[in-house]
Amino acid sequence: SRADWRDTQLLLVSEASVFEDAAAILAMQQFVHEGGRLWFMLENIPAQRIEPLLGNGQSLSELDRVELNQFDLELHYPFPDKSDRIARVDRDQPFRFKRLIQTGGRVTHSIEGWPAVIWMKVGYGDIVLTTLSNAAWLTAGSESPEPMLSTAFRVSRAGVLLGADIYEPGVEPPLQESVDYPLELVGSPVLPRGRVAMVLLSFLALLTASGVISLSVGKLSRLGWLAPVLALAVGLLLVISSAWTRRDIPETQAMLQLIRISELGNTASIREQGVVYLEKQREMSLQGEHDGYALADQSVQSGIKRLQTEGLIGWQLQNMAWPTGSWRYGAHQAKDIDEMVAIGAFDSEGLKLRLPDGLQELQDVIVSFVPGQPMVGRVQSGVVSADGAIMASADRWVADSIISDEQRRRIAVYQEFFASKNEQLPALKSLLGWTDAWPEVQCTEELERAGGALVSLPIRLQRPVAGAPLLIPAGMVRLSKDSLDAGQSPAFDQASGLWAEEMTIETRSGLQFLLPHEVLPFRAESIDLYLGVRAPSRLVRLLALVPGEADVMEEVEIARLESPSLPWQGSVDDPRVLASVEDGKLDIVLEISKRTDVESEENASSFVAWRVDTLRASLRGSRVATEANE
Known about the structure:
This protein is an alpha+beta fold. The protein has eight helices and 36 strands.
């Protein structure tokens, strides 16, 4: 059940018998999608058994098995010395090694080019695959007079790096901490501003009238005791009015549901933050009909809290004396659903996403396909349109110009959802939008229900028709570091897609714009670039790298900005630059020079920082037809 998995961070599987249980496979799918880590030792597990757990664009194909006594294990880590990347292994006892082909994974260890350790990102979690015999990660231990120092085995050098990665804390899904959304829906016993203003104005009028009367009769000293009496009467009136206002708040169950549909579209993970407001203390319980659990807030100290499971999936959280007032609870459930996937296609106006049948009307949608470039979309007749004209940032998270109170609350949730903190990553290749709350957690009492559900649907792109005009909006073009550039600047974080808040040193950053593979090969007709940079007293250059003579890359200057303070945007129509993106990659360089207002920065009296807010690109063109892809 979900309650059994909630404290598990790593699950190690070394036997194929686990995959004979359909319920176990489903549980592992939900576990990794919600941020868990699965480690499969393929020594005893056929690679095809892992396929149901992989995400879109990921695959495994097992070729053969070999036995190795001597081999070089290449470590794909950023070591300072190239010789440190090789771990030589020489044993009398051979190690079993599976040779396989993979797509969509990150290889950290390899033998003669064949992957030995593969990391695959699935949802918020990771699937780790080791193809080398388990004994290769260990070496013989040693004895010691001190019993605590004796060990039968010790971890090999390659195993140390693997272990450090395996036990590194994973990425938590967004919004793990409580937000104010459900509490705001319950409301607070606050007096209306008009009533408070009327009482205060009445107090001033009475005080003024009393002063005038006292002055007319020649006894102005009476105000010394009359003013406090009036203030006390007005204060008492406000207290009574406030107590009466509380009676206007109905007993309510308010909630914010975070619903994530798995990449295959067949399961829904439902995390709920809820608030219940009660007028008086009494017995009450929450109940759910799916695999899951609920937890009451630690501040609820009265009564006896008890979580009771009913069969395999039902549960009930009960308390004999729920306290008066507003208290929080959290619930986590998972259930099977009919396939819910947003099917996407490009046309001349941008991206169109067809919503699945059976989903409630989606509102205030965000397309989050690549890190750092969420787009605001519009919904009409079950289709979401996004052209990159409105990029989600700062306070702009909805398409409407005039926002309602509910949209204001949704904006606050979006801001927290996409906030980059604690290595938290945003949802990628997902369509996010709001619906009414799903009826997943019910109170046994008759309470008013309020709240909404933030639903995250996986996006599945279709291959466009060859030759048809396409607009690839900026929110679908990923900005990445150039892996071949040895002198990478720390100014850009490709995992989150965000730039450092400010830098003071010069930089030359090798970057790449990457197109979705569904549109390749791509014939570009124009490239629109947008660069938001603030670099006072510096020269900023944006360069494109194109193939030149003898396969030597040449630089084509796209933009030259001196002391920029406002965003720059421009269109590129150079045939060499357009031709270079046919394979879906545009190599660029962003240069930010030293200060131009001083001869030497070391002797400058102050630091002048620069900052890049965003760098994005959108492209117009068409997919090229070839014999291989038609």
